[in-house]
Amino acid sequence: MRFAGKVAVVTGAASGIGKAAVLKLAGEGAHVFAADIDEAGGKALAEASNGKIEFLRCDVTVAADIEALMNEAAKRGGGIDIVFNNAAAGGDRAPIDEISPEGWDWTMNLVLKSVAMGIRYAAPHMKGRKGASIVNTASVAALGAGYSPTAYAVAKAGVLQLTKVAATDLAQYGIRVNAICPGFINTNIFTSTLEVPDASKDAAKAIIADMSAHAQPVARGGQPEDIANAVAYLASDEASFMTGTHMLVDGGLTIGQRHAW
Ligand code: NAD
């Protein structure tokens, strides 16, 4: 029960990594405000929770939505202790020599500005609260090219730099800021954003699951709970000496392929 008495806000809470983080934080005692554009998914999560989880609708591409989310969570919860800025999707998939200015802007807004505004509007409610912690979802895409589409990879790299500058800006208020870099995790992000010619969305998901299980050193697909466990650690007082850094949870994907011998 590391989060007993704590108030947490999680974005992208209706599915995948966000949902696993909501259940982990609530399971260890937090009162969690679960935010998403998916109202059905978010409400279902809250209804199954005996009051430990409240759903608040929020589109993270709209700064006013994020401001309203943080204000409402702080009002109902009496402040905010933990924020997990997690919502995103794959963004525009075009390579750099084809991407449109609109596609670039949309991806930066969805993947990077959303996190900046999450910090911006949560921080005033977190100042001076003991153990205040912000965790942002970056990606292996932030660390190397080729894992994800161009604009998404650039935006996720921006999330890492944002994490560092926010950590320095907010240290004076006792707020820690860290990032998580998931590898390939089996969630809906692939079925919702991957465009694979001549293959169904189910086939796209199977391709990713198969790649995760056979190429990376840890021979299984990553699960949302693998990331939620790391998020809970970063959000907890056990990580009280960590700020402005990232945790890589990728089954060894970024160190290279597993050898056969
Ligand atoms: P997911 O599709 O399962 O969940 C994403 C959630 O975000 C959904 O509930 C969706 O409704 C919500 N969402 C999307 N756009 C939103 C918006 N504008 N406002 C509010 N909510 C919105 O995907 P996931 O894999 O759990 O993704 C969570 C985070 O993890 C994302 O930031 C993603 O970029 C990152 N990530 C995922 C992987 C992976 O392999 N799954 C790897 C690295 C990073």
UniProtKB/TrEMBL annotation:
Give the UniProt family note. Answer: Belongs to the short-chain dehydrogenases/reductases (SDR) family.
> Coiled-coil segments, which residues?
none
The UniProt record lists the keyword Ribonucleoprotein? no
Q: Which GO terms describe its molecular function?
A: oxidoreductase activity
Origin: domain of life: Bacteria
Q: What PANTHER family does its record include?
A: DEHYDROGENASES, SHORT CHAIN (PTHR24321), ESTRADIOL 17-BETA-DEHYDROGENASE 8-RELATED (PTHR24321:SF8)
Name any one Pfam family assigned in the record.
Answer: adh_short_C2
Tell me the InterPro entries matching this sequence: NAD(P)-bd_dom_sf, SDR_fam
Q: What is this protein called?
A: NAD(P)-dependent dehydrogenase, short-chain alcohol dehydrogenase family
Key word Magnesium present: no
Q: Which UniProt keywords apply?
A: Oxidoreductase
What Gene3D superfamilies would the database entry show? NAD(P)-binding Rossmann-like Domain
